[in-house]
Amino acid sequence: MPELPEVETVRRQLDPVVAGRRFERVAIHDPRLVRPLAPADVERQLAGERVESVVRRGKYLAFRFESGRVLLVHLRMTGSFRHAPPGELLAVDPHRRAVVTLDDGSDVVYRDVRRFGTWTVLDPDEIEPYLGRRVGGEPLSREFTGAALAARLANRRAPVKGAILDQRAVAGLGNIYADEALWRARIHPLRPAGTLAGDELRRLHRALRAALLAGIERQGATLRDYSTPNGGRGEMQHEFKVYGRDGEPCDRCGTPIEKTRVAGRGTWYCPRCQPLSGA
């Protein structure tokens, strides 16, 4: 599933080509994308809207319109966008779910192999209540301090990995960058979150930001389906320290990376650098 670095990369590439442009035509080919609404109703809602900007909130992309309304997109597992200059849209694509034609003649294509992605149109007074129930602090914002992270993890008995995967605790974090951050912080993923001491929490705070920034710098990780709107691939998969590397030597100490399961997710860690006993 695309995580914060992948979604932020998509946002950075989409914003320059859609900001200031009007949705000339909208064609939704897959009813699942907008259910329970009918595709024709959503097409009518979006046609004629002019984009003010594309922003990110957690793993959500938000097309903010000058009208105040928002098209909120969640890519889920395999959703992606592709920007096609005028006349370059492929004639046939079995995974194309929607096409927005902009007023400059170019197309913004939404593709989704597994069809789990969602498009939701929200009125101005619906935006914050909708997002507020689903996502918490942005880990790259000024408000996301070490103290803020400590408050979110205090008294949590859940394993720290499960706790930081909670989108209301750390918006946009997913399985890949949780493992990478915990390795950077030298914290075992099974440690109960509420047992982390002050220095460990400070290390985790720094590590979360560092792992996410590294992912953004490399335009995310392409493991299978993820691609950028200009057709490129992410490069972060070549920089993983633990994720997907079971049996390979730790870059820091040489100990073979091990795999376990935490909160139902495959989890990779170094048993020497990240001892379960903690500090």
State the name of the first-level CATH class of the largest domain. Alpha Beta
Number of separate helices: 7
Query: Taking all residues together, what is the mean pLDDT?
Result: 95
Shape field: globular
SS content category = alpha+beta
User: Largest beta sheet, briefly?
Assistant: 4 strands, antiparallel
> Any guess at the CATH architecture of the largest domain?
Alpha-Beta Barrel
Task: Please list the strands of the largest sheet in the order they lie side by side.
Answer: 1-6-7-5
| Total strand segments | 10
User: Any idea what the radius of gyration is?
Assistant: 20 Å
Annotated CATH topology of the largest domain: N-terminal domain of MutM-like DNA repair proteins
Provide the β-strand percentage band: 15-25%
Helix content: 25-40%
Element order: H for helix, E for strand: HEHEEEEEEEHHHHHEE
